[in-house]
């Protein structure tokens, strides 16, 4: 819409107020005066994002369902593509639109509950797990790892907000799909071999039954729950319950592997890896597990320690005011049996002396 106006702002552009510029100006004024009216964000409700890209621009919108169940727009954002970005393949343009949305809505999405990003490019659903990544995509995926989101496919005819920039008729209507991992099914199956969790589940299902539990387990019994075959643990009263990973060393290492070693994870450090794991999972002493796992990673290099800055020695006011001394031993003995020397140095006059000495 604003393209004729933004072209006038380019460097060395000839100023010419054409009829197209006037129409764009009037269209922008009309848009600001008419619906849709933006809604105020409610941080207690989940957000969703729609994004899309065309040959010359990218756009996105932040959405939220209000108390009456209506989907409201919180913010619109769009910009033209730079000259180099116009040469990107379609897949990278769509991924760029997703990155642009996360940057613009960072204040609302970072650290929030899981949210959904809708796109009309079906291949983006598997972009985070693809083994074939360009350097540009790898950099973007490391940025995506800071957010807790899933990608869902919405055809262009349904993605009317972000698709105002480009309609994609080459995609057929498809059902919504969620990214799933076999890790969750492995966790569910491993519960059968964990005796400690079996006792907790029995105590939860039959409160009046006498079950042998440790004092620590009994004091934390109210924090556990069972939903659809998964055991959940709530660390604090206001936190979301997390899936309990059973006492299986290989399975816990699998969780850490997916949070740290996969292409989308980017071999993050200890704190970021722990934050990523703690979003969905919990087991006792999990932080120690993460710390040990990251320390053994060959690709995670410790931050170099800062060396002390070089400093000049103080200059003495008079001769012989400052004298340095040191011993050197294990030298060949002379005729009198001396095997060492005493090194003397006067700072101001640059005098040095080496009298012979012995260890006694």
TrEMBL record:
CDD domains: RNase_HI_RT_Ty3 (cd09274). InterPro entries: DNA/RNA_pol_sf, Integrase_H2C2, Retrovirus_Pol_polyprotein, Rev_trsase/Diguanyl_cyclase, RT_RNaseH_2. Residues 248-298 form the Integrase zinc-binding domain. Residues 17-116 form the Reverse transcriptase/retrotransposon-derived protein RNase H-like domain. The keyword Transmembrane does not apply. Keywords: Multifunctional enzyme. GO terms for molecular function: catalytic activity. PANTHER family: PROTEIN CBG26694, PROTEIN NYNRIN-LIKE. This is Integrase zinc-binding domain-containing protein. It comes from Phytophthora fragariae.
């Amino acid at each position: 819409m604003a393209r004729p106006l933004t072209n006038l702002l380019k460097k060395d552009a000839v100023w010419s107020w054409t009829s197209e510029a006037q129409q764009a100006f009037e269209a922008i004024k009309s848009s600001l005066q008419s619906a849709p009216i933006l809604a105020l964000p409610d941080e207690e409700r989940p957000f969703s994002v729609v994004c899309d890209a065309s040959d010359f621009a990218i756009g996105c919108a932040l959405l939220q369902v209000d108390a009456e169940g209506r989907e409201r727009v919180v913010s619109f954002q769009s910009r033209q593509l730079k000259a180099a970005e116009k040469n990107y393949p379609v897949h990278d343009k769509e991924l760029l639109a997703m990155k642009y949305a996360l940057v613009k809505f960072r204040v609302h999405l970072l650290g929030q509950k899981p949210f959904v990003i809708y796109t009309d490019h079906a291949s983006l659903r598997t972009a985070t797990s693809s083994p074939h990544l360009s350097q540009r995509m790898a950099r973007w995926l490391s940025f995506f790892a800071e957010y807790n989101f899933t990608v869902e496919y919405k055809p262009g005819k349904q993605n009317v907000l972000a698709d105002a920039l480009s309609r994609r008729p080459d995609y057929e209507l498809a059902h919504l799909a969620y990214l799933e991992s076999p890790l969750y099914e492995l966790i569910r199956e491993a519960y059968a071999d964990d005796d400690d969790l079996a006792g907790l589940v029995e105590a939860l299902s039959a409160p009046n039954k006498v079950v042998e539990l440790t004092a620590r387990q009994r004091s934390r019994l109210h924090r556990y729950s069972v939903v659809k075959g998964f055991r959940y643990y709530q660390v604090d009263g206001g936190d979301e319950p997390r899936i309990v990973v059973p006492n299986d060393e290989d399975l816990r290492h699998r969780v850490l592997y997916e949070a740290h070693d996969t292409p989308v994870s980017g071999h993050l450090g200890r704190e970021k890896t722990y934050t990523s794991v703690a979003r969905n999972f919990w087991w006792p002493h999990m932080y120690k597990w993460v710390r040990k796992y990251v320390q053994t990673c060959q690709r995670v290099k410790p931050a170099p320690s800062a060396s002390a800055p070089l400093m000049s020695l103080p200059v003495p006011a008079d001769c012989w005011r400052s004298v340095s001394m040191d011993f050197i031993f294990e030298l060949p003995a002379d005729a009198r049996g001396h095997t060492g020397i005493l090194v003397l140095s006067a700072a101001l006059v640059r005098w040095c002396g080496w009298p012979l000495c012995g260890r006694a």
